[in-house]
Write a structure and sequence with these properties.
By secondary structure, this protein is mainly α. The protein has two domains: 39 residues, no CATH class; 67 residues, no CATH class. The chain has four helices and three strands; from the N terminus they run E-E-E-H-H-H-H. It has a three-stranded antiparallel β-sheet with strand order 2-1-3, with no helix packed on it. Strand 1 and strand 2 form a beta hairpin. Helix 1 packs parallel to helix 3.
Length: 131
Amino acid sequence: MSKKFCESCGTEIDDKDTYCSKCGRPLHLVYGEPNNKVTNDNNMIGVIGFITSIVNLLLCCGSLSIVPIILCGIGIAKSKRADGEGKIMSIIGLILAIIALLVFVFTVIFPLIFAVPLIPIFGEIFEEMSY
């Protein structure tokens, strides 16, 4: 009978084991030679989302906040597969991107929406004051 090895870390395992005694991952049994290659499932998308959200907030580019929001959302979802790596960074990036979006909405969009109807009124007031 062939030896069985953990697919994740390559440790030899017993038939009755359901989790690897070394890395703790659920076992997906592989027969044959051990896989000594340890997988590194880092969460680079979460890191990129975090960095873009910081740049977005510092440069006041709230109109582009959708990019880090999407990247951080993917980073949060991917962190489940990467043993939670990058989850906190993705959550912080998501919060920063939402803050940048809200700052953009309150400083650019709302004034445009609410100030445009007031321009004729202010124009008449300034004309009357100039006489």
